[in-house]
Design a protein that fits this description.
- The complex is a heterodimer of chains A (275) and B (332).
- By secondary structure, chain A is of the alpha/beta class.
- Chain A contains 8 helices and 10 strands.
- Chain A has an 8-stranded mixed β-sheet with strand order 1-2-3-5-4-6-7-10, sandwiched between helices. In chain A, strands 8-9 form a two-stranded antiparallel ribbon.
- In chain A, a hairpin with a 2-residue loop joins β2 and β3.
- Chain A is globular.
- By secondary structure, chain B is α/β, with parallel strands linked by helices.
- Chain B has 2 domains: 282 residues, Alpha/Beta hydrolase fold, catalytic domain (Rossmann fold); 44 residues.
- The longest helix of chain B has 20 residues.
- Classes of the chains: A alpha/beta (275), B alpha/beta (332).
């Protein structure tokens, strides 16, 4: 796969499968010659993948055009990746980030690696970063725990469900949550949420040090940027309609974040503390 | 990184001006012995609106795996600007699709796959807006040997309804009074519909209907699956709504092979497990009847033929009461 550039230079985009225990992860590598920095993109949870797909592809291409190599992927059990979704745990998905980071970093170890996550992906990236992986961390709308990410997904799904239901046939998000808490699995956009996954989500948290950029600065000697997406960023943030909002111009979001990633490359190895 | 795992292979289609990314689901080996490749028919999945090629709930992955297991080479391809393919997605994507903007590239993909994999043709599989691309492509593509259409629509929907109307609809759905008013509104619409002799609505997509007539009238087998619509009564449309499915079945003419099935347990996304499985059963049954895979011995009572027999036992083709249209686009 290639992306055309104004200069006529073409960037390679290579889709592939990456083996992890019990499954294969679908990956797309936006390959760059002699990259200044690498970015591993961990997208949002389950069905949110579809809502964010096009903006994240464009984000990856935007970075690649600036000599930043990008690897994006599908969680184990979702999208093009293999494995039964209902058998997955947050630990599996954290392991995905860790294994991919190791592989990505090994391509040329001296090139800095930035972990980037959106929604649940921000928690996954944050936890791996907290474990010492990566030279930088970029978080878009990190929830405090995985339960918040699941609630966001649930709310969006309930909103669509309610379009087709009237009066007493309509269930609220609270109704569905009660069912989960009573031990019944729930299908959300075709993904079967187990009560165990819901329960575990409460304890799968963003590291405390990543509550704010200030606390991250105190805890890590590596740059961290935390960017809260508002409704203008839909459907990357809350709300929005697939097929409409995902086709919008996200330059306002991409440009400052790309500049920050570029700065990580420039400052990496110079011992400069980041604000 | 691997390009192929098990029966799945990542493929890229060049030569169309852009590189398109896709996934090829290889057919089960037992359907290939000693048969010339030209007997084989493939299934081509195209994107629904801006969804990536896995589709809602990854349903397309599931269906493609299942069809490959039945002996049909299956291909899920991201059209230009969608999923992982090259190109810029249009900001007025829906208008572009409704005007047939993906017709030529879909037809070119069908030709490319047919040549590359030595197929006799492909059945094009679309969902919602993907149906529109499938119909346009099918009308201008000799390689199209069938269409599978999930909740097609034949009108020109508004990309985004006014906010006031959205909120009014939401209120009507949750309020008892709102529902009464909504029912009254439907009755008025129905009166208008009857007064104009159940004529084609003004926002019908006439260009698409012309293509439909061409492809369906030529006898290309078409399977049309319908999920329950908003306030619909079974397979029939909501009161006051024009029955497009009834219309297009009649428009197709006497030579047509249009099968209409209602999937009661599905919703418009066809992503829920029950709906997904029901779609799979319908597709398998229909494919076996209309485009049986190469290498199959109908006399052999193997797993495959038993599955096919099971699936054909409750066939109700042609359906006496064609379904009505009504997709999530309405709700938007």
């Amino acid at each position: 796969m290639q992306t055309r550039l104004d200069s006529g230079r073409r960037l390679q985009e290579r889709a592939g499968y990456f083996p992890v225990p019990g499954a294969y992860l679908y990956t797309v590598l936006h390959e760059v010659e002699n990259p200044a920095v690498r970015v591993l993109v961990a997208g949002p949870f389950a069905s949110e993948r579809h809502n964010s797909y096009l903006p994240l592809v464009r984000w990856a291409r935007t970075l690649a055009e600036e000599n930043i190599e990008v690897l994006r992927y599908d969680y184990r059990g979702t999208g093009e990746s293999t494995g039964p979704f209902e058998a997955m745990t947050f630990e599996h998905w954290e392991e995905d980030v860790r294994l991919l980071s190791t592989w990505f970093k090994s391509r040329t170890p001296h090139v800095p690696l930035v972990l980037h996550g959106l929604g649940l992906g921000a928690i996954l990236a944050g936890r791996v970063f907290d474990g010492g992986v990566g030279e930088g961390l970029l978080l878009w709308s990190p929830p405090a725990n995985a339960n918040q990410a699941m609630r966001t997904t649930l709310m969006r799904w309930v909103g669509l469900e309610q379009i087709f239901k009237f009066g007493d046939d309509r269930k609220s998000a609270s109704d569905y949550i009660r069912e989960l808490e009573k031990g019944s699995p729930l299908q959300v956009d075709g993904y079967l949420w187990s009560p165990g996954l819901w329960r575990d989500s409460l304890d799968f948290t963003l590291p405390a040090a990543l509550a704010s950029e200030e606390s991250a600065k105190r805890a890590y000697e590596r740059p961290v940027r935390i960017f809260k997406l508002n409704s203008d960023a839909a459907p990357l943030g809350k709300g929005g309609l697939v097929g409409y909002d995902d086709l919008r111009d996200f330059t306002w979001l991409f440009t400052p974040n790309r500049e920050w990633v570029t700065a990580v490359a420039a400052q990496s190895g110079k011992g400069i503390a980041y604000a | 990184m691997l390009e192929s795992i098990g029966k799945r292979e990542l493929i890229a289609l060049d030569g169309l001006g852009l590189r398109l990314q896709g996934t090829y689901h290889r057919p089960a080996d037992r359907f290939l012995p000693g048969r010339a490749g030209r007997d084989r028919v493939g299934v081509l999945f195209v994107n629904s609106l801006s969804l990536p090629r896995a589709a809602s709930g990854d349903s397309a992955v599931h269906w493609a795996d299942s069809l490959a297991e039945l002996g049909y080479p299956s291909f899920r391809i991201d059209l230009p600007g969608l999923g992982d393919s090259e190109g810029e997605a249009s900001t007025n994507l829906l208008d572009r699709i409704n005007a047939g903007g993906f017709a030529s590239v879909t037809a070119a993909v069908a030709r490319d796959l047919t040549g590359r994999y030595g197929l006799s043709g492909v059945v094009i599989f679309g969902h919602c807006a993907g149906c529109v691309s499938a119909i346009y492509a099918g009308a201008g593509c000799g390689e199209c040997t069938g269409l599978i259409l999930l909740d097609p629509y034949f009108h020109l929907p508004q990309a985004k309804r006014p906010r006031v109307r959205e909120e009014l609809s939401a209120w009507a759905r949750r309020s008892r009074i709102g529902r009464l008013l909504s029912n009254s509104y439907d009755s008025v619409r129905n009166l208008h519909l009857q007064l104009r002799g159940n004529g084609l609505p003004g926002n019908a997509n006439s260009q698409l209907l012309t293509c439909w007539k061409r492809v369906a009238g030529a006898g290309v087998p078409i399977l049309l699956l319908k999920a329950p619509g908003i306030k619909a009564h079974g397979a029939k449309p909501r009161l006051g709504e024009f029955d497009y499915i009834d219309y297009v079945v009649k428009l197709a003419g006497h030579k047509s092979q249009v099968s209409v099935e209602f999937i009661e347990c599905a919703d418009h996304s066809f992503a829920n497990r029950e709906g997904r499985e029901a779609v799979q059963r319908q597709i398998e049954r229909w494919l076996v009847l209309h485009v049986p895979p190469a290498g199959i011995n109908f006399g052999a009572k193997d797993d495959w033929s038993l599955r096919a027999i099971d699936n054909t036992s409750d066939s109700r083709e042609p359906q006496a009461e064609p379904a009505g249209t009504g997709c999530a686009l309405e709700g938007r």
